[in-house]
């Protein structure tokens, strides 16, 4: 009888603990999370390997997308290097593959070969994608990002572009966007450690 009483008390205590835990405020990501996730418009780009890249290539994986170009002097190489460092941490919190897409916003200079050499340096999880402006601009705009198009005839130019990072879920829909920190005198970049912490929360809450 005493053993039964102890068991009942233990079960009641466990259930009470579960109820209390579920009633506590759950951690929330600092990123802008889309609820519900936003569908991606149909697109067709080219990968750095020469193959077509469509919506289907976003499914079955978590994908981080950001705009950049191989001649970029600051934001792009910094973001790529930061991603290379943080990828093991990102991959450790989900059973789905984690990929990174560099969306080139400089189709004039970023040929397939140049983009391939640049992207593959960072690892097999990275994919460089490109397109001419007529297909590229709607795709980038659909992500909630932007970039500038140089004037006709310009040769040595910089491309202004968003420094935010977009997260696409395994269904191929936009799940969140990570904004860059704006610090006077410094290159605006996304806080990768905060992004990793947010991603853990987002991936755990997925479905």
UniProtKB/TrEMBL annotation:
Disulfide bonds join 72-76. Keywords: Copper, Disulfide bond, Metal-binding. Residues 34-201 form the Thioredoxin domain. It comes from the Bacteria. The keyword Manganese does not apply. GO terms for molecular function: metal ion binding. This is Thioredoxin domain-containing protein.
């Amino acid at each position: 009888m005493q053993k039964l009483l102890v068991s009942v008390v233990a079960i009641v205590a466990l259930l009470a603990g579960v109820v209390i835990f579920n009633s506590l405020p759950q951690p929330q990501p600092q990123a802008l999370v889309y609820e519900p996730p936003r569908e991606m418009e149909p697109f067709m780009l080219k990968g750095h390997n020469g193959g077509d890249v469509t919506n289907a290539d976003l499914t079955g994986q978590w994908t981080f997308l950001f705009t950049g170009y191989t001649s970029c002097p600051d934001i792009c190489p910094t973001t790529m290097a930061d991603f290379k460092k943080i990828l093991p941490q990102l991959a450790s919190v989900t059973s789905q593959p984690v990929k990174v897409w560099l969306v080139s916003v400089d189709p004039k200079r970023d040929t397939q070969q140049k983009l391939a050499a640049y992207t593959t340096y960072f690892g097999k999880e990275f994919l460089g994608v490109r397109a001419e402006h007529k297909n590229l601009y709607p795709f980038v705009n659909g992500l909630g990002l932007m970039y500038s198009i140089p004037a006709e005839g310009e040769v040595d130019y910089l491309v202004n572009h968003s420094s935010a990072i977009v997260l696409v879920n395994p269904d191929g829909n936009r799940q969140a966007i990570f904004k860059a920190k704006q610090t006077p005198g410094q290159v605006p970049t996304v806080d990768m450690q905060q992004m990793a912490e947010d991603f853990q929360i987002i991936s755990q809450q997925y479905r």
